[in-house]
Write a structure and sequence with these properties.
Length: 220
């Protein structure tokens, strides 16, 4: 059995490396040139849910199963989870942000959409203030806090303007065909919060990837 499994493992690993290294629609990117479009407004129907939090060994993840949704035009996407990256990954005009929240969604047809909220250092972030003390001590699966509710809407900036591009997962297998929405307006976290997060997790953002002639759409 091992004689058959080893070639399969090597083939799978090679496929992952090929997509991550040679893919033409990879994420994150440096948003330095855009084309303006009359893009549909983002309509959020996020609902507070009992906290389900995990340390996955790389970041803190908060999962949802309460039907929170994002609507873009006629398409609806259901919120699956959010997590954090340091530094922020996607850049705007070359600016690197110290942190980003990735809110991952899936449509009924299975289309994945990543909504990115970038952070700058400044005022203390209320949601992070609540979450940081509740990060599990080790990577041992989900921890549920039925008496503590979390609302992903607390991560959204006041402006609904955004960039949109076709991208990928940021970790192997780096699957392409993922819709990326990057909010134009960053939100804030304090330097103390950022330092506390980095005490628990090493930087985990992927380097920016070439655009390869992709058009980054910018909403009016």
């Amino acid at each position: 059995m091992k004689l058959f499994l080893l070639p399969l493992l090597l083939f799978t690993t090679a496929c992952f490396a090929g997509t991550c290294e040679d893919g033409q629609r990879q994420s994150p990117v440096d948003i330095s040139a855009t084309t303006r479009f009359h893009l549909p407004a983002l309509k959020f129907d996020y609902r507070a849910a009992p906290l389900r939090i995990a340390d996955d060994g790389h970041t803190v993840r908060v999962r949802f199963s309460n039907g929170s949704q994002l609507q873009i035009g006629t398409q609806r996407y259901t919120l699956q989870q959010f997590h954090f990256h340091t530094p922020g990954g996607d850049r705007i005009a070359g600016e690197e942000f110290p942190m980003a929240a990735h809110l991952l969604h899936k449509s009924q047809s299975g289309q994945l959409l990543a909504l990115v909220v970038l952070f700058r250092t400044g005022a203390e972030n209320p949601l992070l203030s609540a979450l940081l003390p509740l990060i599990p001590a080790r990577a041992d699966g989900d921890h549920r806090h039925p008496d503590f509710t979390v609302d992903a809407g607390k991560l959204l900036p006041s402006s609904g303007s955004y960039y949109r591009y076709q991208g990928s997962l940021t970790a192997p297998p780096c699957t392409e065909g993922v819709d990326w929405i990057v909010m134009k307006q960053p939100i804030e976290l304090s330097a103390t919060q950022l330092a506390r997060y980095r005490q628990r997790f090493s930087d985990n953002a992927r380097a920016v990837q070439p655009l390869h002639q992709r058009i980054v759409q910018e909403s009016f």
